[in-house]
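From the methods appendix. Each design record in this collection lists the tokenized structure first, followed by the designed amino acid sequence. Records were kept in a plain field format so they could be parsed without special tools. The example shown here is representative of the layout used throughout.

RECORD:
FOLD TOKENS (183 positions):
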């Protein structure tokens, strides 16, 4: 079983991923963007002014996400292909990544019967600063959300939409979907 939580920032993906990791005893792949920021000793502010650095950063996220997932047969991930929504919004490399063989191979994995993609929609109730982004904009969250939705549809991926605020309702929904999986 491969479980992915995708969507814009500040929607509650990490909370949902932690729940699945604990409840189903599967390893959790944390958001690789934060790992790369730390490894490169970057701050989000530095990405505002150097487009070459943004391109390198976004490409590193794309490759690292795929690489991290290949380490496990079963996992829950706090991201997936949805980094491409940020690539589209902030960099110049979208065409390069969309045409890569790596993406096409990855999409086949995402389309597999053992893959579950949960698309977590933004709500104002979940909109909370995460300590990484210096400011949080509802319009910015919605722009990324729209890009994620576009990518899901463009790639023809099967997904389950989470649009409720309440965590109890979210976990019931997640459990109802994951209970259908037979190993």
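DESIGN:
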């Amino acid at each position: 079983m491969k479980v992915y939580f995708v969507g814009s920032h500040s929607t509650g993906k990490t909370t949902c991923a932690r729940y699945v990791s604990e409840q189903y005893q599967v390893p959790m792949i944390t958001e690789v963007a934060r790992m790369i920021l730390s490894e490169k000793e970057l701050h989000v502010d530095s990405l505002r002014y150097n487009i070459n650095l943004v391109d390198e950063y976004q490409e590193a996220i794309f490759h690292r996400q795929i690489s991290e997932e290949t380490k496990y047969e079963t996992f829950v991930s706090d991201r997936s292909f949805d980094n491409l929504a940020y690539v589209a919004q902030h960099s110049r490399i979208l065409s390069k990544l969309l045409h890569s063989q790596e993406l096409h191979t990855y999409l086949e994995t995402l389309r597999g019967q053992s893959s579950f993609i949960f698309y977590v929609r933004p709500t104002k109730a979940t909109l909370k600063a995460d300590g990484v982004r210096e400011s949080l904009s509802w319009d910015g969250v919605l722009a990324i959300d729209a890009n994620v939705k576009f990518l899901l549809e463009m790639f023809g991926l099967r997904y389950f939409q989470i649009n409720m605020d309440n965590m109890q309702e979210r976990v019931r929904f997640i459990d109802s979907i994951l209970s259908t999986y037979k190993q």
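APPENDIX NOTE: Strands lie at 2-6, 28-29, 75-77, 115-120, 160-162.
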